[in-house]
Design goal:
This is Glucose-inhibited division protein B. With 119 residues, the protein is an alpha/beta fold. The chain is 28% helix and 40% strand.
């Protein structure tokens, strides 16, 4: 009886590991400079990315974005999460999306001041 329990336990652990590994496939986060996002946005559409830039905004209509020194931009959502960083260089992580009608957008998962940047 003991060997059967051991085998069932081992099979259950193996099945759990396989499920976890395959469930995470395609969810890797990649670091992408704004220049590349601006020049080839479709390559990163609907991907989890990390990038960095200076937080800027415009009031009418209200929107926030990050930009680099070459003015490559990505709009950032939700606005209330990025607003406290206005004027700061930040590193952001989130789901990147591109649409010809709505442009380049990032829905935040994480934002923090980028202390390593010289921008």
């Amino acid at each position: 009886m003991r060997p059967l329990r051991k085998r069932i336990g081992l099979m259950a652990v193996t099945l759990l590991l396989v499920t976890l590994i395959t469930g995470c496939r395609g969810q890797l986060t990649v670091t992408v400079p704004l220049t590349i996002l601006a020049n080839n946005p479709t390559a990163f559409d609907d991907n989890q990315i990390v990038t960095h830039g200076v937080v800027r905004h415009f009031n009418d209509p209200l929107h926030y974005w990050i930009e680099d020194e070459h003015l490559n931009r990505v709009e950032v959502f939700p606005h209330q999460q990025i607003a406290p960083f206005l004027g700061d260089v930040v590193e952001v992580e989130g789901r990147f999306q591109f649409s010809p009608h709505e442009g380049r957008r990032l829905t935040l998962a994480r934002v923090e001041r980028d202390v390593s940047s010289t921008e």
